[in-house]
Amino acid sequence: MSVTTSAETTVSAVEKSTIRKVAWRLVPFVALMFFINYLDRSAIGFAAPNGMNDDLALSVTQVGFASGVFFIGYILLEVPSNLALARFGARRWLARIMVSWGIVAVLFTWVGNFEQLAVLRFLLGVAEAGFFPGAILFLSLWVPARHRGKILALFYLAQPLTTVVGAPLAGLLIGAHGLFGLEGWRVMFLGVGIPAIVIGVVAWFYLKDKPTDAKWLTPEEQQWLTTELENEKVKTESLNLTSSGGKKRGGFKQAFSSGRVWTLAFIYFGFIYGLYTLAFFLPTIISGFQELYGVKYDVFQKGLITAIPYIPAAIALWFWTKDVSRRGLKTWHIAGPAVVAALTIPFALLAGSPVATIAIIAITAMAIFAVLPNFWTLPTQFLTGVAAAAGVALINTVGNIAGFGAPYITGAVADWTKNADGTPQYIVPMAIVGFFMLLSAVLMVLLARRGRVSGLDAPDTVVLH
Predict the structure, then answer these.
(1) In a designed cystine with 332, which of 54, 130, 336, 365 is the match (CB 3.0 to 4.6 A)?
(2) pTM for the full model?
(3) Are 117 and 104 in contact (CB under 8 A)?
(4) What gap in Å lies between CA 402 and CA 118, rounded to an integer?
């Protein structure tokens, strides 16, 4: 099959106004949900080196396991959750997910040992399952394919900005030691958990499932968007029938039997491996600057330093997506950043100074975040309906296996290769990250060369076979 998306088309006045309203009314709110989501799941990375490890007597391996066990529950329920979203509607399901994880997140405030920490992390994954692919699918169903890259880029800006804003915020909350009689890291868990419950309740009333429910669109805009999305769906389903010899397959089976879906899933695995290694261990690496370089930072300063790489990452994400919109998606838009990340992250710890280390990590973060929103435009180019829900969830599920593996393997290998003085050593774990990022680049190139993603040299199209 082939699906062609024009990067530069004549845009009518109603199209401009409709897409602008969708961008302003839906994307910031869903991005806020994503902001809270990412902050809650990565909060353990801030808590670990700032009192939690000492209070709960945790080893680096235990922290890695507790960080990663989140993804076991997440993985098990990812696809079922997204299928439920397709059945019950995004508004209800995303709101339910958010309130559920908010309740679990608040319970971290009173965790007392490693076993309780691991159980709560597992339950947090169960509660959050389906949110991210559900949000991606929700936004994809509100805009035609030619606008999806920009919309998803606006949404994805929330992820690097979570650390830009969230790391200093976490530092401030941790610095509020003694508030309510709690240690600082417990105050932080309380402070990042409550907003999830509040925004989840708001989402139930604020989000809409389809354009005809959106009173903020004019009747003309509702009609244009509904017609455009329906025509696009019919065209994609027709092309799928052509490519499958006229055999109509169920949506679930279509997604799980697609070689394209599985290859994209393994490509995504490499990026998530790098993303969560940074998210969970960058605060720990920064805390280690004191021993390595003889510098000392307070908790708030550590939060600011943690945020530094994510500022250029957000900028790179936006301008890389603009380039994709201008040129059309090319193989190197995905494979190129993967190679950059693969080469930079293992050498970050050999830089010789805090400034050089953070500068190299910033390049890695820029590479990872530049790819993600553009990557997510691919599945919905050839999947619709239940197949799209299952396919997006499957890709995210395989990626989140890396979410479990990355922190656990990083912690275990850091302990296994520790220095003579007993301190963890992160050079080998970062080399493993580099390997998986390079594997993603190779798979993307092979996918294109085998004709599964072709037409990438055309000036203004994305063609998927």
Answers:
(1) 336
(2) 0.71
(3) no
(4) 17
Alpha helices by DSSP H, listed for 89-157, are 90-107, 114-128, 131-140, 145-156
Taking the C-alpha atoms of 320, 325, 327 and 330 in order, what is their torsion angle to the nearest 10 degrees? 70
Compute the Cα dihedral for 452, 458, 459, 460 and give only its sign. Answer: negative
Residue type, 435: F
What is the DSSP code (8-state) at residue 1?
-
Beta bridge mates, 463: 4, 454
Predicted local confidence at residue 305, as pLDDT: 83
The alpha-helical segments, DSSP class H, found in 288-344 are 289-293, 299-307, 310-327, 331-344
CA–CA distance, 371 with 272 (Å, rounded to integer): 11
Residue-wise pLDDT tens digits, 5-56: 443 444 588 888 999 999 999 999 998 998 898 888 888 888 888 899 999 9
What is residue 158's three-state secondary structure?
helix
Residue spans of the domains in the chain: they are 3-237+255-458
Question: In 3D, which of 76, 74, 96, 75 has the Cα closest to residue 87?
Answer: 96
Which residue from 14, 407, 47, 50 is spatially nearest to 228, judged by alpha carbons? 14
Give the pLDDT of residue 236: 64
Lowest mean pLDDT among 86-95, 170-179, 286-295: 286-295
